[in-house]
Design brief:
The structure holds two protein chains of two kinds. By secondary structure, chain A is mainly alpha-helical. Chain A has one domain (about 15-25, about 55-340). Chain A is built from 16 helices and no strands. Chain A has helices at about 5-10, 15-35, 40-65, 75-85, 90-120, 125-140, 150-160, 160-170, 170-175, 190-205, 210-220, 220-225, 230-255, 265-280, 290-310, 320-335. In chain A, helix 4 packs across helix 13. The two termini of chain A are about 30 Å apart. Chain B folds into three domains: about 5-240, P-loop containing nucleotide triphosphate hydrolases (Rossmann fold, 3-Layer(aba) Sandwich); about 260-335 and about 425-505, P-loop containing nucleotide triphosphate hydrolases (Rossmann fold), CATH 3.40.50; about 345-420, no CATH class. Chain B contains 17 helices and 24 strands. In chain B, the strands form six sheets. Chain B has a six-stranded mixed β-sheet with strand order 6-9-10-3-11-12, sandwiched between helices. Chain B has a six-stranded mixed β-sheet with strand order 18-21-22-15-23-24, sandwiched between helices. Chain B has a four-stranded antiparallel β-sheet with strand order 2-1-4-5, with helices on one face. In chain B, a hairpin with a 2-residue loop joins strand 4 and strand 5. The longest helix of chain B is centred in the middle third of the chain and has 16 residues, at about 175-190. Chain B is globular, with a radius of gyration of 25 Å. The chains are: A mainly alpha, B alpha/beta. The interface of A and B includes residues 3, 207, 218, 228 and 288 of A.
Chain lengths: ~350, ~500
Amino acid sequence: MRQSSIKRWFFQNVGFASALALLTVIYLSYNMLHPRGFSSAVAIQNTNEAAAIAFVAMAQTLPVLLGGLDLSVGAVMTLTNCIASVLVNGSPGQIALGIFLTLASGTAFGFMNGCIVVFGRIQPIIATLATGAIAIGLALLVRPKPGGDVDGDLGWALTNSVRDFADTYGIADGGDAWWLRPFADIPVPFLLVVFVTVLVWVPFRRSVTGRTVYAIGSAEGAAFMSGLPIARAKIAAFTLGGFFAACGGLYLAIQTSSGNADLQQAGAYTLNSIAAVVLGGTSLLGGVGSAVGSLVGAMILRVISFYFRILDIDPLLQPLIEGVVLLVAVSFGAIRTLRVKNKLDLFR
Amino acid sequence: MSAPIVEYRGISKFFAGIRALENVDFACRSGTIHAVLGENGAGKSTLIKIMAGVLAPDAGEMLLDGKPVTFSSPDQATRNGVVCMFQELSLISDLTVADNICISDPPRRFGLIDRRAQTRRAEELLARVRCEDVDPNALVRELSLSRRQMVEIAKALGRDPKVLILDEATSALTSRDVQTVYDLLAELKSQGVASLFISHRMHEVDALCDTLSVFRNGRHIETFAKGEKSEREIVKLMIGRDVEAQFPPKPAPAPEGKRGEALLKVGNLSWLNRLNGIDLSVHRGEIVGLGGLDGQGQKELLLALFGVLRDVEGEVVVGERKGIPSSPAAAKSARTRMALVPEDRKTEGLMLGMPIADNLLAASFSRISRGPFIDPQQARRSIEDGIARLQIKAGSTNDPVMTLSGGNQQKVVIAKWLMIDPDVILLNDPTRGIDVGTKQEIYRLMRDLANAGKAILFYSSDYAELIGCCDRVSVLYGGRVVAEKVGDEISEEGLVAASLNIDVEAA
């Protein structure tokens, strides 16, 4: 039976569609409850707080699509955060080089993770547990104490609206040019996330390597029998994960204009990234989901925390409520098991 | 006659010392449809897996178009024009139909997959297999088994095969699709493609193929043109003259009505499309065999009786109690206790990493516990009993069970179930992959258990076992009992013919 393409998209992406619906509902009502809701200032603040976790959640998505977990994403973010806090300053050329080196180091770390998993034949979860600790160790070497001086102009420009960005660098008549007006109030961090998604994730998904990642997560045996490049796809997935984590670390450095080799923060980011991936409709068994879904999942987690500020809820309840939301969301995914006809299939 | 496109010279393959193929010479020519016949375990799968690059031969060489080749992966075989459709489907269920059809070499633009071109190509190929009703953008997991098989065929076609291997390619198809596949194979034949066709359906082989090869016990017995031999002769070739294993003597067959009390009665049992109305009964003191080719519903029947499957329809009476057990836990603890020795001892029978002792006790904890605690004295006695009863050769019962040989592992599984003192024993191919000596011990044990008043339902893929052990054999075909053989009717010829669902007397 042929279905209309929208209907088909919905049925094939139930998890993502419901996450998107949930985010829309809770974010709209948040803005309605907020005294200055639907303003540029609120949107800027929100996207600033969500950008780093959004990148880290995208980083986590790739290993999860393979059917594994990456416990080093938070640590790689922390490491690149510290590297950026040292390198991203000085002349425009030096800043560009610093940004490049930051992203390159995260990417290289992901590549190393991939090689360990593929050639060392170690399960991703334990390999990345070890390399995560290594990343924290390196971060502490780079920055034993919190601090650093990330270029102030860059920090201001990338954490505010498009108008402020133009104003900082004196382009488009300081942000007042007529053609910039429709976009002037959009938060820059939002655009950064969208750019990275469109320029990196979308092409990856449409490449043979990207498709192989999905195929491995879905049925590795069938992928092998179909003659797909399995080793290459696994390494590429972890490498790309490292790149996304580096984007998160770089953004965090720009936002806070410093670096901090904080073990607790790294752990929290890793665990939240797994929660975001699951909320975004990606299956922990692999093969189903997308990085865009994880973006939505990360936003959901963040929006829940925004509520604590505007409603008079004890902030101590935040972990409890986040836990309940996560549990309810993943319960929907378990409905599938009610349809299994051979109970042995539940254990495979 | 043209030169062969694929030729095997002296190819051998062993798995852990067990012969799968030995010194096989085999040739397959372009523009033919070549059937490969043989019993379960005759070496057909190994033959094609070597051709498809999944397995590497231990000895001998393979020639493609007269040149020696070695394929190290399925990818390489495909690039050389050898395309295989496997029995277990090689489709990826979370990707779309179009993704799957074009999986190894999708059309690309600027290095990225061109979705539109891919959909068009998928549509063309689906049209060639007359599956226009399949939406290329649907996920494979949304399709029925028969549609998936057609998608698999479309995928194989898209790779421009010179040699096309179809392993049980029609097992799940509807009759209309089967006709489509016939037409397609005839078309490929006229284009000079060599098709290797593995099927258990004699009438298909008869309708389709022009050359037949028979394999038995890992050896290539004979290749001949269609029509040279009768079905009866072919069946004889497939059986051969095997050294028979030693079986304990059977009691004289009891006439109907004089059998013991029926401990298990099954009426019109159905499950999805795999079981289609099974009727049988097993009486006290009786060993009933389940015959037939692999995958005709025997395994599903045993699982259904043990409460593993959901939505099973039909009537089951176990002892006094009506109804299918709701779970294995219910099946083993009912008044008339049931035990299942499962198909795969490594995943379903044993906890490989745990000690032998814990594995032996795994089904009978309730019998050796006092309140919530396991009584160490009783546990030790039970373990000693189990080891002695099956003569399990183990150093220490605290060693992980995976340190044992295959035969002793299987004994642990059986001993585990005997500890609950079951009344009805379901056996799913219990002698697979174990040595001859242990096999004989198991046959004797089965007969002793039957003599002690147990009811045994026994599936085996080895006809010789069914003949040697069983008082009655029900032959399954397509999820139905097609024949019941009693006493002297249990012969190799009769069983093979019944499992191919052909009538030898008429042939």
